[in-house]
Design a protein that fits this description.
19 helices; mainly alpha; Beta Polymerase, domain 2
Length: 409
């Protein structure tokens, strides 16, 4: 385990480097710190999806003179490989789009390549983990069947990955063997067919769908293809909820926060903020929008929305969650490691997000009795035959996770 002094040096370096307007002098000072452990710095940079961006930032600011040669070479390879990955992703996205169209499954592309084009001057600076498509619920299965018929296969379900927003993830392995390298050009990208932007009744909270997405969506051109994307207001809310829910679940990445921050910088002055407020309140996600904009401002100095918008979002955020967002969330995110999530905090923050006794009871119910179908997926066991044993295994696994978290803390 890395000692606290070295980890502090790593966090100071990353924090100085990811600001929207980074200070070259502060970065040089952090890079020259005698406490900096490059193994730890690159481990955390990789985990947050930042290695190509840091390489580009340090080089463009001419702040990289003190970087050891082996670290410099590793970052250069990550940047180059991510350039290749994202170039390949453009072609694969269009292929999947066409397969869905052939299955008569209309789609909206979520985040991903169109977002990279809109926010990042260099596509290599943003890691693209998967492809997300929003598909009408009555056509989603047809779209999935078409992908499976074209060589896609199910992605193994991650522990505790309960969701009702998308169908099972699929990918083309093509004989790929994972080697633990995030920027591997050969690593396949999962495809997720969403039937909603986010999980309804997420973790027992009264989170609802966002209405009328399709009429507000718009078309855009990607290379030679015409695709459909969300409206700017719906994109902003989606990015905020995506970041906030991962923060609560203890597996957020700084790269996700940069999407929110860069979106605010580019589109904040042109967003219909009345529309954002109406939508966030009707869907029960105003609290998530607040913690995301608060964290982005604290960590990278992202611009805030207009003051009246901030005031109304803040008023919709329960006190404990608001206090955490304003005082601790930025540092919390910076030190977060999705590979070793600290599950000792996830239910504390879920309870903190609850706005009523009914929501608190919903959180308790979700903690004790998650959907049996989700447990069946997780443990690869039939529901009818092993329902009781699935819950017994769930209680045991969660108990171990919390005990481990207590020991680490």
């Amino acid at each position: 385990m890395i000692d606290s002094r070295r980890r502090s040096a790593t966090l100071a370096l990353i924090r100085a480097s990811v600001r929207l307007d980074p200070d070259a002098g502060a970065i040089r000072d952090s890079l020259a710190s005698p406490d900096l452990d490059w193994g730890d710095a690159l481990y955390l940079a990789d985990g947050h999806g930042l290695t190509p961006l840091l390489h580009h930032t340090w080089r463009s600011l001419q702040a990289d003179a003190s970087i050891p040669e082996n670290a410099r070479a590793r970052m250069e390879i990550a940047y180059r490989d991510n350039t290749t990955r994202n170039a390949d992703a453009r072609q694969e996205l269009i292929e999947v789009w066409n397969l869905l169209a052939a299955a008569d499954a209309p789609a909206i592309v979520l985040k991903g390549v169109p977002l990279i084009d809109a926010l990042y001057a260099d596509p290599a600076l943003r890691v693209l983990y998967d492809f997300d498509f929003l598909v009408p619920e009555d056509r989603a299965q047809a779209g999935l069947a078409e992908l499976m018929a074209r060589g896609f296969e199910r992605v193994p379900v991650k522990a505790h990955a309960y969701n009702n927003k998308h169908l099972p993830s699929v990918w083309r392995l093509n004989g790929f063997k994972r080697r633990g390298y995030l920027f591997d050009p050969a690593q396949p990208r999962p495809v997720e067919l969403h039937v909603a932007l986010w999980d309804t009744q997420w973790r027992g909270l009264n989170v609802r769908p966002l209405d009328d997405l399709w009429p507000r969506s718009r078309t855009t051109t990607l290379d030679n293809a015409t695709i459909r994307v969300l409206s700017a207001e719906d994109s902003f809310l989606h990015l905020c909820v995506h970041l906030a829910t991962h923060l609560v679940e203890r597996e957020a990445r700084v790269g996700q926060l940069l999407d929110v921050a860069l979106f605010m910088r580019r589109f904040g002055n042109s967003l219909d903020w009345d529309r954002v407020l109406r939508a966030s309140h009707s869907a029960g996600v105003a609290r998530f929008a607040y913690i995301s904009i608060c964290t982005a401002h604290a960590l990278v100095d992202a611009p805030f929305p207009p003051p009246d918008v901030v005031t109304r979002l803040r008023a919709s955020t329960p006190f404990q969650l608001r206090q955490w967002a304003e005082q601790n969330a930025a540092a919390d995110l910076l030190g977060m490691d999705y590979r070793q999530p600290d599950l000792g905090q996830d239910y504390f923050l879920t309870f903190a997000a609850a706005q009523s006794l009914a929501e608190k009871m919903g959180v308790v119910r979700f903690a004790l009795l998650p959907p049996v179908n989700a447990l069946s997926e997780q443990y690869h066991s039939p529901v009818r035959a092993f329902g009781i044993s699935l819950y017994a295994r769930h209680f045991l696994d969660r108990g171990r996770a919390y005990a481990g978290s207590l020991l680490r803390s």
